[in-house]
Amino acid sequence: MNGRSHPIEHADEPLLWVLRDELGLTGTHYGCGIGACGCCTVLVAGEPVRSCQVTAASVGERPVTTMEGLAERGPDGQVTALHPVQQAFLETPLQCGWCLPGHILCAVALLNRNPAPDEAAIAEAAQPNLCRCGGYNTIKAAVARAAELARSS
Questions:
Q1: What is the fold, at CATH topology level, of the domain defined by 73-152?
Q2: pLDDT tens digits for range 91-124
Q3: Fewest beta carbons less than 10 Å away: which of 76, 124, 129, 143?
Q4: Where does the chain have alpha helices with state H?
């Protein structure tokens, strides 16, 4: 989990609740509970996964990245640098932000596959995630900005 091993007490529970309740990683949001909205998205072995739809046990030893695992941290655990996608979304704020885990983690996966995505690729990567506030144009702009930031760093 975010580069560290953690003992899991309730491995038969949905990964979402293990992250939030056992590990205190509340950056992964509960939205619909049926895998439709994307608020609970995490990366499992680099691929977006709806954490409300998989058990912690089914993940096994594969690496899991949550919102908390994107930023660089110093030895004291304090954030030293945001991931370029986090920085871009900070520069391009949305109304409520509830959907951000899904959009940010899908953008990270996209940029890992394609560091210079065009507008169509950005829209396709964002498509599985809902935004209650209708901020889709802002989200696409933030992902394009994240690609710029990643290429310049």
A1: DNA polymerase; domain 1 (1.10.150)
A2: 988 888 899 999 999 999 999 999 999 999 999 9
A3: 76
A4: 15-17, 56-59, 84-91, 100-113, 119-126, 136-152
